[in-house]
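Hello K.,

You asked for the raw outputs rather than the summary table, so here they are, unedited. I folded two proteins back to back in the same session to keep the settings identical. This is the first:
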Amino acid sequence: MIGKALVAMALATAASAAEVPDPYLWLESVDSPRAMAWVEARNAYTTRKLEADPAYAANYAAALAIGGAKDRIPTPEFVHGAIYNFWQDADHLRGIWRTTTLEDYRVAQPNWRTVLDIDALGKAEGKSWVWKGTTCLEPDQRRCLVALSDGGEDAITVREFDVVTGRFVDGGFTLPHGKQEVAWEDADHILVAREWTPGELTTSGYAYVVKRVTRGQPLSAAVEVFRGDKADTLVSPATYVDGDGRRLTLITRARDFFHFEYDLVDAKGTRRLALPLKSTPVGLVAGRVVVRLDEAWSAGGANLPSGALAAVDLAAAMRDPAALAPSLVWAPGPRDALEDAATTRDRLLVSTLDNVRGRAWSFAPTANGWRKTPLPVADNMAIRLGDTDRRMDRAFLTVSGFLTPPTLSLVDTAAGTLTAVKSLPAKFDASGAIVEQHEAVSSDGTRIPYFIVHRRDLKLDGQTPTLLTAYGGFQVSRTPDYSATTGKLWIEKGGALVLANIRGGGEFGPAWHEAGLGVKRQIIYDDFAAVGRDLIARKITSPRRLGIEGGSNGGLLMGVQFTQHPELWHAVIIDVPLLDMIRIGKIAAGASWAGEYGDVDTDPVVRAFWEKTSPYQNLKAGVAYPEPFIFTTTKDDRVGPQHARKFAARLEELGYHFYFYENTEGGHGAGADLKQAARTTALEMTYLQAELMDR
């Protein structure tokens, strides 16, 4: 009874707090004339001030030149026996989808053939089309479902495209605008999750009903295959095919962002596949379903650890999906983490982290398990798996470092060899810089690793302009990637760059992420502050020279650092952020992240935590805050621009100075085309240079 009384009291307190009026709710109406007039006025101030800075023009020119450079590595995809690439440059701001042969791709100047011109398509149709990728019918890959977004939002339009004729298919599959997921079932059927009737969406704004659409029939004739409910995060279909043509079609029901139920689809209808809730299918290899585990799994006599890769026999799973007998493919050591995995014809390609250093492996299925072959990659680098070829045992893999431009290699997963195909020329002078890895001690004694890139002749006098960044959420790992614009506009100018591998990420597996879930999240923010203090204690920098930057969940991290530790930073960039954690479930897709942040609307403990932590609610008068740069986009239908707007409006009410810039396109990113992205980069780099550097 006492427990129930305490819960009731907490709920009453939360309800009372919820009744406090929010004076900036009107800014949540994304496209209202009043809200857009407010945006335009703040944009005008920011662009007038920063574009007048003598450094801006050069920063913009450099960012645009790097973003649209002809010597970038064109990201390859295996499609219909050829290489395809989506490419943007100064002549193709929205981009072209183009193709060549693998042999031709390997030469310095391939002979590309344009398949689809997005700029021309948008002009012809009067749309602000943004490319969102393709889903091709396996194994032939001649027919592809092309996804296009109007202005860059997550909602898409889907059309069937024939790569042989180079045209959209007359009478082919077409799905009108909406947040939707689609998968090929076979040549004449697709499975689609979308808003079939008005309001048939989860509280997160995603579909929960999957229907089978038959070629030549209208959407109104689609047959329901699976139905979740509004409390789910989303429901989506997917089809996996191995090198011998075996197929597995699954419907994923996301109960929240990290817990999933899987139903296989066959002639019998749908049947639950008894995978752990915290697991993700990777693909099929030689009749085995490979599964990533984010929790321990005991089944069929096997006990597999969290963070491992497992495999189950496809034929056995189809016979009895409730009685799975998994086997181990790979298990992590104490400082290991699984980064990525993908399938080729007969092999599994895996990238892992060893103390945040990239490793790569090829796994071959055998009668007695899996044979592991290490791939020869350099140390202290970031490893990125590229596209894989399900027809042959080959794949693309990219290796890069903070100071090492990316090299794209073709992997022979059967032989375990890499052949360099293309390398990006250096985009900034890194000759005077080095990379080090240090550790800071967080509030609970945990050692938090971080990388620092700085000049070789660094003076430990606290005067080095330093930019510290992190993400700290959703089990996303941050590794030593090459950033040409940051290198050119920051490192080359003498600034130091720091990447903190704080908890909430996946750098050390699921436990590193789970340490900061929900109301445990303060430890993530303590980790980040600890790295800042460690940089100051080492006299690498000082609060006067220390700036921080992060986007999305990283934008929330920046907002918390802004309110909790204003004394540590002199510049704060808050990109496409979450900042109002009390109304997060009512803004854009915010309800979908309750698994990460907790549910403020149903759990009084979660609400109490965010009432004392949420950046928007914790801005106060009379605090010596740094002058921040806040960036968002009107078309962001994932996080939404509402958070950034309201945070800026509250700062303004309290009399603080700030920079605010909202791009009217771009979705959850820097811009819808190269010029928009270059402008965002130039504004932010000009701000950082002005705040932290002596010029």
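The second followed immediately with the same parameters:
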Amino acid sequence: MPMTPLDEKWLQRISCIEYAFQPIVNIHTGFCYGLEALLRNYEAAGFDSIGAFFDKAFEDRLLYRVDLMLREKALKKLSLLGWNRQIKLFFNLDNRVLDSENYRSGNTIELLSRYGLPRNALCFEISEKHEIHDPGEALRTLDVYRSQGFKIAVDDYGAGFAGLKLLYYAKPDFIKIDRFFISDISKDPNKRLFVSSIVNIAHLMGSVVIAEGVETRQEFFSCRDIGCDLIQGYFVAHPEIDICCLEHRYKAIEELGEKDRRNGSSEDKQLIDMEIEDIEPVECNCDIFDIFERFRSDQGVTFLPVVNDMDEPLGVICEDSLKQYVYSQFGTALLQNPAFGRTVSRFISRYPIADINTPAEKILEIYSRNDKLEGILIVENLKYRGFLSAHSLLKVLNEKNIAIARDQNPLSKLPGNTLIHEYVSQAIGDLESGYAFIYFDFDNFKPYNDKYGFRQGDRVILLFADMLKTRTQFPNRFAGHIGGDDFFMGVHGLPVERVLKNVLRIARQFQVDVESFYDPEAIRKGSITAENREGEQQTFPLLTVSAVILELPAGRKSRYSNEEISNIMARQKKIAKKSPEKISILCLTENSENHVKRYEGGLWAETGKRAS
């Protein structure tokens, strides 16, 4: 059916429309992977909203024609960027276009050719917010787009109607998680659970996850820890109408990745890099008989990764999938038939992928959800890097566990002084975020050890270590064992009042639970008799724990050294042991005179000089 031409009124409306581009960047490196085209100036076209603009086009039965003209606007602007062969345009597709009766294949290819853009430069975003009336026809249209080399993304995932059913049938290359689930994700465990589940499903399907609307540093770290691949939002950059403001790489994100690598998080990457197999991929448009030759010449290869002309993995082609043609009487003739097609695209199976910066445990999580997998495709900036087999993954995890064991306290299995030092170094260098350092020290532990023996003393240490472990099973907390009865906890991004409540709860629980390590007579008296440091008999209360809380507020100006922090903690330890609550809180804040504030008896008191 021929397309209805646009009248002068619609041509005028479209002439008012402008596009702003918002970067979509790699969460590990800051590399700009794509740009979302966001429609602007709809008010000048006479509409109150973008939805009203498209509703009117649909009502006039001109939606597909209008959409094609908008595609041309966006692609023309992309072509002016200059680095178009290395960038993807994410273009929002009104779902009703997929049901259009006047849809014709080939229009978009003509537009790309006109502006000198490759086919894989375009990704169509279909929104989950609007229901597709004819799923069968819509999916056939999406299959046509995919066969032409275009990528497919599900936009606003989690905000609409289709849910998992859309993922199952559409098999999208990208899943964009709706802003609702990203907002304040660092404070909402239910949102973390939801996003984590979607990330796991997406990676198992071979899809890439984009977190939409990332606006804060805390949201960024949460999305990265969960395993999102790409991010988009104000934390990276606002949408820009002026393409000169766009960058190849966003330094703020790149610097956060480099800081992590300096602090030791690159160890997994180095281990993975050593173990990945360099299996040479095949291109998606190669001849199927080239694949036969590869399998025949290398008997040890049972599958081959398939990439597009931008080196992005599309999946794998398995030797087993070709056997039905090899052993069939008419199989070879069928493959040679032009109507059937001699390219590998019909034989490609989607396969899980993981970025080379992904922690080994996350890769294991993907692998363990499908026992039929031989391994994982590894990418860097979403370009094929190699293949990590199950055997190699186990070697990586083993090497990592050995390295971790070297840095653990042998008794409690908590991180030891090396990892504590690394954590403190990273925190004191992060001036923009708020942290709290907590130092725990048992009261009257030496007399207990002398009376009941070191074996029983070790049991008390393990009791407290287990308590800390249960309190730090969150991404914003860290627990370590300095040695003996000295422990450390770090908390990121929580107000000091909440930290104080948590510490008080730990102290009270320890005081109650440790009673079971005494004999009935000591419990009745509430004390024991043992030798003091001078060798004299003395009465000592039952075990308690003292704590020093050192708060480093967000936005501080001064950078304290590890030595300064240690000295401050040592002085505050004496104060804590003498206080009724067995707790001392110190807040390092700077004003023009560089004062330090101390929390005493529920009030903040000026000390008058910097603690150093």
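The domain at 8-265 is CATH 3.20.20.450 (TIM Barrel).

Happy to rerun anything if the numbers look odd on your end.

Regards,
P.
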